[in-house]
């Protein structure tokens, strides 16, 4: 399964995830489906301004995480 969603997380907000105060990120796909995944998968996409962009999350049919990709810059 592929889920496409947009994130706009400030660097201050992501700091809570980094410090493990919040372990999961919740987002809504372009179709309005709610998804939840471990915040650690966002680490490669952190910039000084936070995390911004359009992403695709891939999971198995059973809902297990496969990959997270940023699909715009």
Explain what this protein looks like in three dimensions.
By secondary structure, this protein is mainly beta. The chain has one domain (2-70): OB fold (Dihydrolipoamide Acetyltransferase, E2P). It is 11% helix and 45% strand. The chain has one helix and five strands, in the order βαββββ. The chain has one helix at 11-18, and strands at 2-9, 24-28, 34-38, 51-59, 65-70. The protein has a three-stranded antiparallel beta sheet. A two-stranded antiparallel ribbon has the order 2-3. Strand 2 (24-28) and strand 3 form a beta hairpin. The two termini are 23 Å apart. The mean pLDDT is 90.
Topology:
Blueprint lengths: L1 E8 L1 H8 L5 E5 L5 E5 L12 E9 L5 E6 L3
Antiparallel strand pairs: 1-4, 2-3, 4-5
Give the key terms.
73 residues, OB fold (Dihydrolipoamide Acetyltransferase, E2P), 1 helix, mainly beta, 5 strands
Q: How far is the first residue's CA from the last residue's CA?
A: 23 Å
Mean pLDDT equals: 90
Rg calc: 12 Å
The tally of structural domains comes to: 1
Q: For the report, how would you describe the main beta sheet?
A: 3 strands, antiparallel
What CATH first level would be assigned?
A: Mainly Beta
Number of helix segments?
1
| Helix percentage range | 10-25%
Question: How are helices and strands ordered from N to C?
Answer: EHEEEE
Strand order of the largest sheet: 1-4-5
CATH architecture label name: Beta Barrel
The helix/strand class is mainly beta
The geometry reads as globular
């Amino acid at each position: 399964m592929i889920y496409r969603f947009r994130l706009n997380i400030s660097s201050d907000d992501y700091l809570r995830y980094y410090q493990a105060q919040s372990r999961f990120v919740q987002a809504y796909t372009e179709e309005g489906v709610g998804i939840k995944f471990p915040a650690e998968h966002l680490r490669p996409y952190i910039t000084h301004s936070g995390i911004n962009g359009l992403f695709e999350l891939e999971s198995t049919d059973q809902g297990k995480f496969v990959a997270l990709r940023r699909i715009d810059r």
